[in-house]
Design a protein that fits this description.
Two copies of one chain form a homodimer. Chain A is an alpha/beta fold. Chain A has two domains: about 5-215 and about 330-410, Aminopeptidase (3-Layer(aba) Sandwich), CATH 3.40.630.10; about 215-330, Alpha-Beta Plaits (2-Layer Sandwich), CATH 3.30.70. Helices cover about 35% and strands about 20% of the residues of chain A. Chain A contains 13 helices and 15 strands. Chain A has helices at about 5, 10-25, 40-55, 100-115, 140-145, 155, 165-175, 200-205, 240-260, 295-315, 335-350, 365, 395-410; strands at about 60, 70, 80-85, 125-130, 190-195, 210-215, 215-225, 230, 265-275, 280, 285-295, 320-330, 330-335, 355-360, 375-380. In chain A, strands 1, 2, 3, 4, 5, 6, 13, 14 and 15 form a nine-stranded mixed sheet that branches. In chain A, strands 9-11-7-12 form a four-stranded antiparallel sheet, covered by helices on one side. Chain A starts with a helix and ends in a 5-residue tail after the last helix. At the A-B interface, strand 8, helix 9, strand 9, strand 10 and strand 11 of A face strand 8, helix 8, strand 9, strand 10 and strand 11 of B.
Chain lengths: ~425, ~425
């Protein structure tokens, strides 16, 4: 790359304004965003993104699972595209930056290259993947999962939310049931920039996280069934209390992750108690277990330990346990060359950086199964995400988008002016 | 009482049929009843009861809190009435007998006395008290609480359910906002028959429980507030997990009750997790604590122990705790003469019986604060209540209603034919 190109940076102010404009759709009083996948608000956000892409001269296509592809032509159209992307659906109490930063950063890269009249060899694409959060419709990373052929299209369109509405029906309702085939598209490389969603970069004063991979995850649904009975006249020793068992499982998941150490995480985020009446001993509890680790064998051991504890707890508390795996992602290491491009760009721009493992899965985790991929992290305030208070510094976001641009140009090749 | 009267019994078949007819209103597929206070179905049940009372020649009045009074005249109208009663509202997943048995038993007593042409000195009343369960609108024993002046009428009419609907508005909507003043009515005595809702009578092969009193209860609402964050990238040791704290409180309530021993009960039946998303560390949990004991000092000690544990748990787990008392009923001993009438009737009819303490509060618990009162228990299958599978033997129910009749006649006095 020429010396002039080596110090390129994006327009940070324009990036910030686009993020804030997008964040108005589904804005919550606490400063966050509630824009669940395939709701009316998600449709509004999608339409705004498409308008911006078209205004930037990008060619937009929607695929059968609602993924949005916006392409900037390269000199050589037969080369597979170098892609940037993330997601614009949010958690129920989400923030303005999770996912949206990666999509707006990709758009900002396109706008900057237009401003500078830079032509690439390979085409470039920025993508907004459908339903990365998996909050309304499990599983997470739905759009990218279908794109790589890991999740079947028909079965995914048939997934329903807790009210029985299907992905397919909701996609059509918001006008994003596209015609471009979901699978079979070559990818040259994929880069995704994202807020860290953890406290490490901020704690260490780093601007850029060179992401070397993502944690493996195992999710389970657990149903504990005891006996509903009256809280007063039922002697303590005769109870089969499903909530007492559930409480013991919450403690056990936490303890197992702490005992495992390293990158181990164990979380219960979801629980429904039946009948959930103040003076009735709960007869049934449904809950979700979320286990994560960096080494595959450690993740397996953590899952085995939790499975064993669930069985012991059920036996001891006099309830039955039904434990069902619902998601299983192995730990993933990103392509060394992509990682190197990101590291080199941070070096070249003089930004404090460190290698880091992503605790969360991202669309990049799936795309990495079919193409060289990499990720770029920037700090977020107090490491908070999946929280309306989620926040990031404009300068950090601009730095991440600039690194994204450099990595993309290194892979796509710049046509000499 | 004359020899002929001493062996009187009610019509058990008619009692059973009335119970089954009432149970059709709000019947659930699992054989239970969902007829929450002041819903349309509650209105339907109330109207059926009023029709039956009028058909039995009883004079019906509705008071300002919706309590239904059905009076059978006595020879001496200036004597305060001898009352029978219970409630016909149910738990969300309730049974056919809880509360309904006591109301139908009182109606069956009236019908039997009519059949036999028996006149009493004092008037008799059978009452259906409003909202005994406190499930939709806390607190429990609402109608009887207002009747004795313990709960203020205006503030009680203003209580709302989780959707913001008020007691007053719902009473009016179902047509039971009555005009009889809620307070200031003398009571001669009060008797209530009820299923035990526990396993003791069935275990010991007794037909009648001579209830000597009800356990004291202390209820609390507890809100635990931590920090919502992403389940993946948030290191275990940096979390402020409100659900982990809640789980520790559930365990602590159970342990404190077991340690206290005797009649101690500790239950968490209600819990709401926020945001309740599978990969988000919960930032807030609301829960209900239900503590019970027979000795006042032991109940105080149990509450103090739990309160201390809540503070320790909050500190240790890095969350804040807001613990609010929501109900406080001291242990109550029933009037010795009323208890003696019940015991004597069981003896006279040759029914296996034992003294017993009620684990649950009942409307009788409140009425006992203003007048001599007693209760009669009958066994229920496996001690199960607050459960759609709740069941009782027709013979046991008939026995309880017959004891009720004998106790009432002993207090009201029979006019010699």
């Amino acid at each position: 790359m020429s010396h002039a190109l080596s110090n390129l940076s994006v327009d940070g102010g324009r990036l910030w304004r686009s993020l804030m404009d997008l964040a108005e759709i589904g804005a919550t009083p606490k400063g966050g965003v509630a824009r669940l996948a395939l709701t009316e608000l998600d449709g509004e956000g999608r339409r705004l993104f498409v308008r911006w892409c078209e205004a930037a001269g990008l060619e937009v296509e929607i695929d059968e699972i609602g993924n949005i592809f916006a392409r900037r032509a390269g000199k050589n159209p037969s080369l597979p595209p170098v892609m940037m992307g993330s997601h614009i659906d949010t958690q129920p109490t989400g923030g303005k930056f999770d996912g949206c930063f990666g999509v707006m950063a990709g758009l900002e890269v396109m706008r900057t290259l237009n401003d500078l009249g830079i032509e690439t060899e390979a085409p470039l694409e920025v993508i907004a993947w459908t339903n990365e959060e998996g909050s309304r419709f499990p599983p997470c990373m739905m759009g990218s999962g279908v794109f790589i052929g890991k999740l079947g299209l028909a079965e995914t369109l048939a997934k329903t939310d807790e009210h029985g509405l299907s992905v397919g029906a909701e996609l059509a309702r918001i006008g994003f049931a596209g015609t471009r085939k979901a699978t079979g598209h070559p990818v040259g490389a994929y880069f995704e920039t994202h807020i860290e969603q953890g406290p490490v970069l901020e704690d260490e004063g780093k601007t850029i996280g060179v992401v070397i991979g993502t944690l493996g995850q195992k999710w389970f649904d657990l149903t504990l069934t005891g006996v509903e009975a009256h809280a007063g006249p039922t002697p303590m020793r005769r109870r089969k209390d499903a909530l007492l068992a559930a409480a013991r499982v919450v403690e056990a998941v936490n303890a197992a992750a702490l005992a495992s150490g390293g990158h181990a995480c164990g979380t219960v985020g979801y629980m429904r108690i039946h009948p959930n009446s103040r003076n009735v001993i709960p007869g049934r509890v449904e809950m979700g277990l979320d286990l994560r680790h960096w080494e595959a064998e450690n993740l397996d051991a953590l899952a085995a330990a939790v499975t064993a504890r669930v069985a012991e707890i059920a036996e001891r508390t006099g309830v039955t346990a039904e434990l069902t795996p619902t998601a299983d992602f192995p730990p993933l290491s990103f392509d060394p060359e992509c990682v190197a491009f990101v590291r080199a760009a941070a070096e070249r721009l003089g930004l404090p950086h460190r290698d880091i493992v992503s605790g969360a899965g991202h669309d990049a985790t799936f795309i990495a199964e079919v193409a060289p991929a990499g990720m770029i992290f920037v700090p977020c305030e107090n490491g908070i995400s999946h929280n309306e208070a989620e926040n990031a510094e404009p300068e950090h976001l601009a730095a991440g988008a600039s690194i994204l641009m450099h990595a993309v140009l290194a892979r796509a090749g710049v046509v000499a002016a």
